[in-house]
């Protein structure tokens, strides 16, 4: 039995189909990302699960119970929003204890539990502070602690990292992954950032225009994209001519062949970008002028490669 | 009706405003001349607030000829004390009802999403109604609810006589109803931005944490609205406390309100030897407003503790 299951959930806003026959099952303890561009329906799916949006058709099963008619406050879904969801008039500890308070847990018990939860996100010394006195990253960690304090059936995360700086984003991301593993809480994570989805998820559900394009492990989605949309949205990809068709090849699966006269493709180097361990080389193909990018290991780049030089490119044989 | 100024309500954007400067901000005086910018403000306050108040108090505490007790003492005894109690009761009641009904009105109007023009219509209407007062409003109510009023006659047709039931447009209940006509829209205007300041993510967070709607309002919504509610209450109280023309016209000058009493002295109808009693009544009104204001600041600071 799955922990959370969407069965043929559809929702339209006026003429727009926000979600069409959305069907996915999350296993107990699994972290699944809903990944897609804005307007793809990922947030709508999450909000329907939380009970903030109604679906037109379909059902949502929590264990074996259909929760579609249940009001949000009876669903026991912990939710974390993009930002500013801490109650501004309560200190950090009272924010974390809020769910226990409305659930009728006695004062001393909830205080102890709040301390434990703050310990879990390593913010135990900030309990007396007010939300505006702590940083954005700390606020999101508190929001996580608050959502987890009531031991929800499922944790729903709606772009929780989007408002944070790059460095803090990675920190909080790792925190989410750690909490998911340590507590075994089934987690649904909505994001438009493919790197985020790749690094955190057990499985990724790629969506576009309210429809699921592919569900699979990060490795699977990246290496065997089911559709052209997935190939383009997850990671970067080159489209190269082969015979009368075109093939999609990732930049790291192309190799430079400086001296190979019989290379599969030839083109002129237009740009070289050094990004540390790797170097990105942009090439314009001779035959159809399409732009191709090749990701090569920096230490293996030979000095013959320079802007304007004509080089060969082959698909890496693995 | 007196306007006590614009209250700063709603939440400021925690991310702060944009960094582009307005033309006025780009015009900067050298630092040592900067205090010059405050001259108009202090000039205004001094000329129209401090100086009149001081001269009023000076006149009010002058010893009264042919009298054993001072004007300040007499202004809070007998009929004058009754006037103060009557005025404060009327102000408190219309402020409380205004806060309650105006807030409920704002909450329900904000829930209505269609038609889209409705919300703007209500805001514009409230803006007009909140500023309608004095003789025109009194006349409108006399025409509707007076002894010969249209509604009075209509109700009479169905066998209910308002006069027999003890209702007069000029008595306490009547004045209360008329005051509510501008008190409710005024509170509505205060509460619309305050309600809009409540983020959807707060109520949704509360719900996802298991809070039923009433628990959200009890533990999150109301505490966050308290500063706006308190500010609104004070504004409505002072609005009613200083209102004069409406009550005067409704009662043909017979209302027992303190502002109407002061007018009696202003007109020169001085009872021999009591010419500074009018000043004393006005001085007591200022004192009551000062006490209310201090109380308000104290309570508001407690309610906003979390913002500092």
Written overview of the protein:
The complex is a heterodimer of chains A (318) and B (308). Chain A is an alpha+beta fold and 318 residues long. Chain A is 27% helix and 34% strand. Chain A has two domains: 4-231, P-loop containing nucleotide triphosphate hydrolases (Rossmann fold), CATH 3.40.50.300; 237-315, OB fold (Dihydrolipoamide Acetyltransferase, E2P) (Beta Barrel), CATH 2.40.50. Chain A is built from eight helices and 17 strands. In chain A, strands 6-7-8-3-9-10 form a six-stranded mixed β-sheet, sandwiched between helices. A five-stranded antiparallel β-sheet of chain A has the order 13-17-14-15-16, with no helix packed on it. In chain A, a hairpin with a 2-residue loop joins strand 9 and strand 10 (211-216). Chain A is elongated. Chain A starts with a strand and ends with a strand. Chain B is mainly α and 308 residues long. Chain B has a single domain (61-307), classed as MetI-like fold, CATH 1.10.3720.10. Helices cover 66% and strands 0% of the residues of chain B. The radius of gyration of chain B is 24 Å and the shape is globular. At the A-B interface, strand 6, helix 2 and helix 4 of A face helix 9 and helix 10 of B.
Estimate the helix proportion of chain B, in percent.
Answer: 55-70%
Question: What is the alpha-carbon Rg of chain A in Å?
Answer: 24 Å
List the uncertain runs of chain A. none
Most extensive interface, chain pair and sizes: A-B, 35 and 21 residues
Number of domains of chain A: 2
Query: What is the CATH H-level superfamily of the largest domain in chain A?
Result: P-loop containing nucleotide triphosphate hydrolases
Q: What percentage of the residues of chain B does DSSP assign to strands (E)?
A: under 5%
The number of helices of chain A is 8
Write the element-wise H/E pattern of chain B from the N-terminal end onward: HHHHHHHHHHHHH
Percent of residues in helices of chain A comes to 25-40%
Shape designation of chain B: globular
CATH structural class of chain B: Mainly Alpha
Class by alpha and beta content of chain A: alpha+beta
- Mean pLDDT across residues of chain B: 83
Please outline the major beta sheet of chain B: none
CATH architecture of chain B: Orthogonal Bundle
Compute the number of strand runs of chain B: 0
CATH superfamily of chain B: MetI-like
Please, how many helices of chain B? 13
Level-2 CATH architecture of the largest domain in chain A: 3-Layer(aba) Sandwich
Number of beta-strand segments of chain A? 17
